[in-house]
Amino acid sequence: MYGRTVATIISTINVNGIRAATGKTGKGMLEWLNVTEADIICLQETRATEEQTRKALAPALDAGWFLSHAEPGVKGRAGVGVLSRREPRAVRVGIGHDDNGTWVPSTEFGGTGRYIEVDFDEVTVASVYVHTGEADTPMQDEKYRFLDAVGARMLAHTGDFVICGDWNIGHTELDIKNWKGNVKNAGFLPGERAWVSSMLAAGYVDVVRELHPGVPGPYSWWSYRGRAYDNDAGWRIDYHLARGDISGRAKQAVVEKAPTYALRWSDHAPVTVQYR
């Protein structure tokens, strides 16, 4: 029986297509699932239907993992999920709000496959995918609206809550290797960075940064182009934002970067945090 004092290990990973990630024989996601110590894994960009996702993860599900999944709203884009070693008490799909005990998804973002929230006995965990955006375009306007909706949900939470995912935002200059070349680009815009600051000011903790203060990275995404991976020229855009007692119980945070470019199974690496 899990209680509030039992250690929990939570990981987050943008899989960059669940079928591609699990299809890399001998070096893919399924092999990682066989060895990870994580209890809960937040997934982003499954890019697959419920049926396709379950088929891709069938060996892991047969081994005892439980899957909660939000299908993409557009074919081949987005899709988020939570894998867990225990069956969750409740699952809510789509950003939204509680209305007299009933979950009401957002009219704009309820079915986009970008947000899922899962209750366990001791903690609620959410997986979120924030799209990249593009400065001074409607895509960027939509990104800000989505962040506002996510922020409202985050501020409504009480108790232990961890929201993990690919935020597509580098908060500070320490979070992007080439920050000077990205000051006018989506992912490092003043409004995006200010949103992260506002969540921290409201009581959320950027767990990985708290455990790795004052250092570049640790990066969690690298372009497939050039030698970005070999040179560790990356971005730290995959965050655990925690609130409640659990935010002070983070003991260790590791970016599980593959030892070589050839052994990676996504352009992101799992970001894994052990909570006391």
From TrEMBL:
One of its GO terms (biological process) is DNA repair. The active site is at 129, 166 (proton donor/acceptor), 268 (proton acceptor). Probably binds two magnesium or manganese ions per subunit. InterPro entries: AP_endonuc_1, Endo/exonu/phosph_ase_sf, Endo/exonuclease/phosphatase, ExoIII-like. The keyword Transmembrane does not apply. NCBIfam families: exoDNase_III, xth. This is Exodeoxyribonuclease.
